[in-house]
């Protein structure tokens, strides 16, 4: 016996199913103004094509704001530094670190204004230094002061977001800043680099940027997270295959300038100052090494009074399961 359903009911059911599928694949991604090869893929729409998702890209100025958006559920995937990531997972925000975006080198630095009287690290005492709090720049600034045996209480550390740092720098309200582009480029126009995050890493205070995902979204849509990771790693591989040829393509540089705010002339140095791990490196890192780095950062943040306690195990917040070699 055949069952005949009214066409309007079939049509309604089809529309409902299509609407559900579309809604299930929608996501909001938080990105920042860092310089990295994957921004070309972002500009080209490669993430949307690979994930078959409708992506709402939202620009954020710092990791603390990214975490707030992810914790609220407004953002499902986000880009942030190791310090705000550590602060978040220490407070048990339900996320997974699924990709190391970059091991930070020259892309973040401490810059002293020309004419500020800061010629050596000891000259920082009594000066105004601006940095976004609970950022990798903040962590690196405190680590640098500790490295130089300078009491942070003897320095005026101001909590400013990068756009506010640019404005304060141009007004002459601050003496130094630890920040990333585009604010870093503005500061370097009439400032001197005292130390970079790459140099600090060699003294035992490495920092990195990472892509994280809400655990509930990853559980429902693991294929989207895997595809997102693959697009990023393909972009890294394309750059690392021949950096000079990659930079010689004006389209690549233009897209980075558009999404980062960095100056075209600074792009080569900023890219060369960081390490963009490929798939095999990711699999090796997204385990004990990253867990240890987060633990070490948590210990430091606790010493500085930025977190109340250090978790006994950070492994649940790090996973290599979305990386395919």
TrEMBL record:
It comes from the Bacteria. Its main location: periplasm. Residues 1-24 form the signal peptide. The keyword Signal applies. Gene3D superfamilies: Periplasmic binding protein-like II (3.40.190.10). Residues 26-243 form the Solute-binding protein family 3/N-terminal domain. It is found in: Periplasm. Keywords: Signal. Pfam families: NMT1 (PF09084). CDD domains: PBP2_taurine. Transmembrane segments: none annotated. PANTHER family: ALIPHATIC SULFONATES-BINDING PROTEIN-RELATED, TAURINE-BINDING PERIPLASMIC PROTEIN. Belongs to the bacterial solute-binding protein SsuA/TauA family. This is Taurine ABC transporter substrate-binding protein. It comes from Pseudomonas sessilinigenes. The lineage of its organism: Bacteria, Pseudomonadati, Pseudomonadota, Gammaproteobacteria, Pseudomonadales.
